[in-house]
Design brief:
The complex is a heterodimer of chains A (169) and B (137). With 169 residues, chain A is an alpha/beta fold. Chain A has a domain of 103 residues: 2-Layer Sandwich (Nucleotidyltransferase, domain 5), CATH 3.30.420. Chain A has four helices and six strands. In chain A, strands 4-3-2-5-6 form a five-stranded mixed beta sheet. With 137 residues, chain B is of the alpha/beta class. Chain B has a domain of 87 residues: Nucleotidyltransferase, domain 5 (2-Layer Sandwich), CATH 3.30.420. Chain B contains three helices and eight strands. In chain B, helix 3 links the parallel strand 6 and strand 7. The longest helix of chain B is centred in the N-terminal third of the chain and has 15 residues. The relative contact order of chain B is 0.18. The chains are: A alpha/beta (169), B alpha/beta (137). Chains A and B meet through helix 1, strand 1 and helix 3 of A and helix 1, strand 1, strand 2, strand 6 and helix 3 of B. Strand 1 of chain A pairs antiparallel with strand 7 of chain B.
């Protein structure tokens, strides 16, 4: 009668499976972004139809102006970009209510704009770190969530972006 | 005297059957932990460098606006005119109220175009922005 023939054990080789998995892994490695985004955070002021005039005492404002060739004027005096940070720190210490009015012209190079913004941010970071050291004995990075909130309240970032004007002439 | 190498009698096959499992584990880790690259960048740009940069923790909140060296503006997959930015940004903010607009602007750009885009963003009430910059050491 019919009798099943005994076959030798059939094995499916699974060594190729690893190669397939490697191929998929490589595909994901190539198509995904691993670079971390870094940048300077900023919150824009809300849009208003008619620019309302807010009167601020002029001694509470630091006017920062960058012209089309990248010269920086701080209150009508020309200043080098690396000097902005110590100058701003000194002025905020003298007057904690200081608002920095940052104005550019339409032809100001973006690179200079970022460099100046960087200086302002560094000034605030230094001030906040100093406050954190005096008050809590830590740096801002190591402070707790509540402490960070308090530091932000104590030293708010007051950077006002003015609309760039056309370069004269 | 003659030294003779002793050969073990047991078979010496290393089992490789679990290798695919390990690779799949790696694969799944990568699939879960990364975000797919979504767009092709059509404009040409070099980011500026800054010291006071912060890392952005949540990549899913980010939406990019590119401004190339030729002052063309790209959002998502297409080049858009500057006055269309506010509509697009508004749509994006509707879908995701906490959106952060990441501005990837060529360092040779002029402030005019940057400010025009910012005004458009203000109009769309997308106020959280981030000037993308590389870390300067």
């Amino acid at each position: 009668m019919f009798r099943k023939k005994k076959r030798p054990g059939a094995e499916i080789s699974s060594s190729g499976l690893a190669d397939i998995a490697f191929l998929m892994l490589l595909f994901f490695l190539v198509t995904t972004t691993i670079d971390i985004d870094t940048g300077i955070d900023l919150v824009l002021p809300p849009w208003v139809e008619t620019a309302e005039q807010v009167q601020v005492r002029s001694d509470n404002i630091a006017n920062l102006l960058v012209n089309e060739v990248g010269d920086v004027l701080l209150d009508e005096k020309i200043i080098g970009i690396p000097q902005i940070k110590p100058e701003i720190i000194a002025r905020i210490k003298a007057n904690p209510k200081l608002i920095i009015s940052y104005k550019t012209v339409r032809d100001t190079p973006y690179n200079i704009y970022i460099n100046v913004m960087d200086q302002l941010k560094l000034a605030y970071i230094d001030l906040r770190n100093e406050y954190a050291r005096q008050k809590f004995g830590t740096t801002v990075d190591q402070a707790t969530e509540d402490q960070v909130q308090e530091i932000r309240q104590a030293i708010p970032q007051r950077i006002s972006l003015a609309e760039p004007t056309q370069a004269e002439g | 005297m003659k030294f003779q190498k002793k050969l073990a009698l047991a078979q010496q096959n290393i089992p490789t059957s679990s290798l695919p499992d390990i690779i799949f584990m790696l694969l799944i880790f990568f699939m879960v932990s990364t975000v797919l690259r979504e767009v092709d960048v059509l404009v040409d740009y070099t980011l500026p460098e800054a010291i006071a940069v912060e890392k952005i923790d949540n990549k899913r909140l980010l939406s990019y606006i590119w401004i190339g060296s030729d002052e063309r503006v790209q959002i998502d997959d297409s080049i858009v005119p500057v006055d269309a930015v506010s509509n697009i940004a508004y749509q994006k903010r509707m879908n995701n109220p906490n959106i952060i607009m990441s501005l990837r602007i060529d360092k040779g750009s002029r402030m005019g175009i940057v400010s025009d885009v910012q005004q458009e963003l203000r109009r769309a009430d997308a106020l959280r922005i981030n000037y993308s910059a590389l870390v300067k050491f």
